Amino acid sequence: MPITCEEPLRQDEFIPIESSAVGAEAQELTKRVKEDLVTICESIFRGAKLRGYQNRWRVYALAKLRPNWDSYGAPVPNGRSVANAIRVLNLLESLNLDPTRILPSAEGGVGICFVRGDRYADIECSNEGEVLGVYYIGSQTPVLIETDATDASISAALERIRNHIRG
Amino acid sequence: MERLFRRYRREDFVDSKFSPLGFAFPKQSVNREKYSYPADVLFSTTDKFDGWGVLYFRVQDLPAEFPPDNRQYTFFPRHVPEDEM
Q1: For an engineered disulfide with B53, which of A8, A72, B28, B76 has Cβ 3.0 to 4.6 Å away?
Q2: Nearest neighbour of A5 by CB, restricted to B20, B29, B54
Q3: Which residues of B touch A113 (CB under 8 A)?
Q4: What's the complex ipTM?
């Protein structure tokens, strides 16, 4: 089990900054966007849709990483892995299970992670076209879930992941 | 009891857990404790690892085979020093 030796030094996440540099129209637009966001956040359905769009955007963004993005020679997710990851996200919608994070795989591909307490699971779409799942609790031996990359087997894998995550 | 060090991106830690997605097989490169400090894996003259972290695992914790009930991978450390960059 890997152990953190040193915590990262700073957060690198994007933080939106408000600006009135382009005048009253921009302020009005900012106000309307904020109101729209409040409306979306108050709606479970719209909130889920918004998270779905954000997840897809995240997957597409991963394809724009530079080669060696992990400094250990990791390849960039290719079109095959991105297409499969989008398919996984589409299948997830009917399971009412939100990913905790979407990450590039150091082996080449896209991974969709689920974490709840000490329960972890992910489903990885590789650049070679494979779709594999894994889940475990704490330091227990991980359980691998193999699929044949069809919608039916991916859905079955996602159901096992959902059952694992929800305990 | 020697430890092996590897740098990781902040994103690879999900809810305080290191995601295995950030770890590549085979031939994952690590630094040996015998020859380095943890922070050495973050050394860069251009600060390109600013904000990254360091994780370690002990040599004896490497499983010889994985998964135990359906062996698909074997593990062993190999000392292959690289030239200074």
Answers
A1: A8
A2: B54
A3: 14, 19, 21
A4: 0.79
Cα distances (Å, whole numbers) of residue B2 to A21, B22, B35, B56: 56, 22, 10, 10
pTM above 0.80, yes or no: no
Pairs across A and B, CB distance < 8 A: 99
Whether residue A136 lies inside any domain: the answer is yes
Instruction: Tell me the per-residue pLDDT of A58-104, one tens digit each, with 9 for 90 and over.
Output: 999 999 999 999 999 999 999 999 999 999 999 998 888 899 999 99
> Taking CA atoms, what residue in A is nearest to B5?
A5
**Chain A nearest CA to B36, separation (Å):** 13
Q: Which amino acid is at A50?
A: L
By residue range, what is the domain housing residue A138? 24-166
Half-sphere exposure of A46 (CA within 13 A, CB side): 8
Higher pLDDT, B77 or A148: A148
Render pLDDT for A9-64 as a digit per residue (tens, 0 to 9): 444 444 444 555 567 878 888 888 888 777 777 788 878 888 888 999 999 999 99
Residue A137 three-state SS: strand
Q: Does B61 touch chain A (CB under 8 A)?
A: yes
Give the number of domains in chain A.
1
CB contact under 8 A, A141 and B67: yes
